[in-house]
Amino acid sequence: MLPTPSTSHVNYDQVYEPAEDSYLLLDTLSSASETAFLQRRFPQHATSPLVVEIGPGSGVVLAFVTAHAGRIFARRNVGTLGVDVNPVACAATRQTVQTASASARADCGVFLDAVNGDLTTAIKPGSVDVLIFNPPYVPSESLPSLPVHDEHDAADARGSFARDSHLLSLSTDGGIDGMEITNRLLAQLDVALSARGVAYILLCAQNKPEIVMAQVRAWPTRDASMLRWNVEKVASSGRKAGWEKLCVIRIWSDR
Amino acid sequence: MKLLTLNFLTCARKTCKATAASFPLHCREVELEQVEMDPNPLFIKNMLPRLDWKAMKGLTQELGLPQLPNEAPSEEELQGADGEPTQVLNDLHTLLMETSVVSGKLVCGNCEYEYPVKDGIASFLLPSHMV
């Protein structure tokens, strides 16, 4: 078991606290089957992969991947980047990743930055090699509005309960079937991922993972060199009497 | 925000993505700082082929930093005969990994929209009418 990064500095009134979903991602990314897959996909001689986590929140998953790059990828020349819609989460992620990297210097990859943005909209097309997303997957009646940077100063001063709950709702509320944000991200994958790109996305039972996976398999290919989109369920948790609570799917393409 | 990160960012507006002018974003009124970081020579070497050298050269010009050569260095220029990293590689580490934008604006060359950087964190959230 690789150590879990510390997030004790994070204010959980404003940033999602690591929970079962976060830990399922840590277990998945460090599992024997996924490390073998990633090491085959990004062999030593290939250019350095860029790992992008969307919605890192506290930064626990990105810190884990960065600090243990040597174990997960069998190479330390791996770059990592976080993009969160919550500006408070960006600062939290940066600190979590830097702290974890400093305590794993012999094993750690290279953390680039945490950027405040909406999913992959600010990422240069075709640059993401490994995308990780623990989405706001809880079904909700409506979606919270995105923060706008013009409001930052005013919002910082407000520091109110209303602002805190708004920021937290961004990390949980997923609209219809809890899939509205995930569907937006899925629609961006074709553009964001590199030719060798892989995406790990966490889903809950209400998201109807089997339907999501069937949709991915039916995606049109990007160009003539691409054979098909693949998707596989690579982990699950909370299995009770055949009823599974959370799962992680892996999406990649064959060429 | 490290200068290397700018190699992976673009204007967040959908209409700008298709235009060449939306990359790289241009630095305006930026405050830079040097932050020491453990060198990872293999990372620089294996990241170099993914670097838009022309864009990076333009950035160093805008920022008044030491000029980069016209062409990206070859693999032989990064490693000495003794296997040790060369000055060229160390300089790239200093530029890409240790030079950071603390505050200022990142401007799209197509739509001129200004993305603010505060405390080293760039914000790409757009007002809803611009998304």
From TrEMBL, chain A:
PROSITE patterns: N6_MTASE
Biological processes annotated in GO: methylation
InterPro entries: DNA_methylase_N6_adenine_CS, Euk-Arch_PrmC-MTase, SAM-dependent_MTases_sf
Domain of life: Eukaryota
Molecular-function GO terms, alphabetical: nucleic acid binding; protein methyltransferase activity; S-adenosylmethionine-dependent methyltransferase activity
Keyword presence, Methyltransferase: yes
CDD domains in the cross-refs: AdoMet_MTases
Keyword entries, A-Z: Methyltransferase, S-adenosyl-L-methionine, Transferase
GO cellular component, one term: eRF1 methyltransferase complex
Keyword Nuclease in annotation: no
Homology family: Belongs to the eukaryotic/archaeal PrmC-related family.
PANTHER family reported in the protein's UniProt record: METHYLTRANSFERASE N6AMT1 (PTHR45875)
Stated name of the protein: Methyltransferase domain-containing protein
Organism: Neohortaea acidophila
UniProtKB/TrEMBL annotation, chain B:
Gene3D superfamilies for this protein: 2.20.25.10
Sample GO molecular function, one term: protein heterodimerization activity
Pfam family, one: Trm112p
GO biological process assignments: rRNA (guanine-N7)-methylation; tRNA methylation
Domain of life where this protein originates: Eukaryota
Similarity comment: family membership: Belongs to the TRM112 family.
Xref: PANTHER family: MULTIFUNCTIONAL METHYLTRANSFERASE SUBUNIT TRM112-LIKE PROTEIN (PTHR12773:SF0), UPF0315 PROTEIN-RELATED (PTHR12773)
Protein name (database record): Trm112p-domain-containing protein
Species the sequence originates in: Neohortaea acidophila
